[in-house]
Amino acid sequence: MNRRRSLLISVIAALLAGLLVYGVYVLQVNQVELQQTVQVVVPKDFVRAGQFIHEDMVEFKAIQKGSYTSSMMTKLTDVIGQESMIPLGTQEPILKWKLNRYHLLPNEQQATFQIPKEYLLTVSNGIRAGDRVRMYVSGSDGSSRRLFGDKEITVASVKSSANVEVDNPKNSNLLSKAQGDEQKMYTSRLEANGAIDQINLNLTENEWLQIDQLCSGKKAKLVIAFSSTSIQVQE
User: Fold this and answer.
1) What is the mean pLDDT of residues 67-80?
2) For position 1, what pLDDT does the model report?
3) What keywords does the record list, in alphabetical order (predicted)?
4) Residue percentage of the chain with pLDDT more than 70
5) Percent of the residues in the chain that have a pLDDT greater than 90, as a whole number
6) Per-residue pLDDT averaged across 205-211, rounded?
7) Beta-strand relationship, 120-123 and 220-226
8) Contacts of 225 (CB under 8 A, 6+ apart)
């Protein structure tokens, strides 16, 4: 009986020892992995918001794998030629959301069209560059309808009569959007450096031709309405 008991104790002790050794091994492996490094792209010097990134402005920096996140940039080709949405600190890993490649330019199916003033009935005062808007047509006979179905149109720019981009100079809408701050995006619209005099939209050729056909005869005008989806930060 004592021999059987001693044997059982020995087996349990051996199992516990094996588990302890395995646990130490796993901890060591994890520690080694954490100590491994990843090459990420960083600015050589401070980069202001709104600057285009050139090859001589960035370099690689090794960071611990445990500090790496999927939003960090690891390829120079993904950084060079992009625009800084917010200031980039010296030697700080560049995050994807801080960059954008010509984000206000039209895509390959579009062009940027300035809407003639005589085509416009109203334009929402809160519209800013980069926003999405809904388009409506109002006829002189009292008829009205929404254009382009449920599609929302991207605003390339809104200019004042002084040909200056309409925005809050102390709290830029685009900068607040890049930072993911919906509250600042909202409050930035309460103050502006001018009233909207010109609006430029990214449209396909067919969309522009449809607008021109409707409005050139002076029997219909456009209503351009701000869409709340413009201040919903994209994850």
Assistant:
1) 90
2) 56
3) Cell projection, Cilium, Flagellum
4) 86
5) 36
6) 96
7) parallel
8) 124, 133, 134, 135, 136
User: Taking the CB of residue 60, how many other CB atoms lie within 10 A of it?
Assistant: 12
- Decide if 94 contacts 88 (C-beta within 8 A): yes
Residue 234 pLDDT level (bands cut at 50, 70, 90): very low
**What pLDDT shows up at residue 190?**
77
Residue from 105, 97, 95, 58 nearest 80 by CA:
58
The set of residues, in sequence order, having a beta carbon less than 8 Å from that of 119 and lying 6+ positions away, is 211, 215, 216, 221, 222
Task: Write the DSSP string, 192-226.
Answer: -SS---EEEEEEEHHHHHHHHHHHTTSSEEEEEEE
Q: What pLDDT sits at residue 235?
A: 41
Give strand pairing partners of 199. 158
First-last CA distance in the chain: 67
Nearest to 176 by CA among 131, 132, 124, 133: 131
- H helices of the chain, in order, are 2-35, 173-178, 182-187, 205-215
Alpha carbon of residue 28 to chain centroid: 39
Q: Which two tokens stand for residue 197?
A: 């005099």
Over residues 7-35, the mean pLDDT reads: 74
Quote the Cα angle for 96-153-79, to 5°. Answer: 20
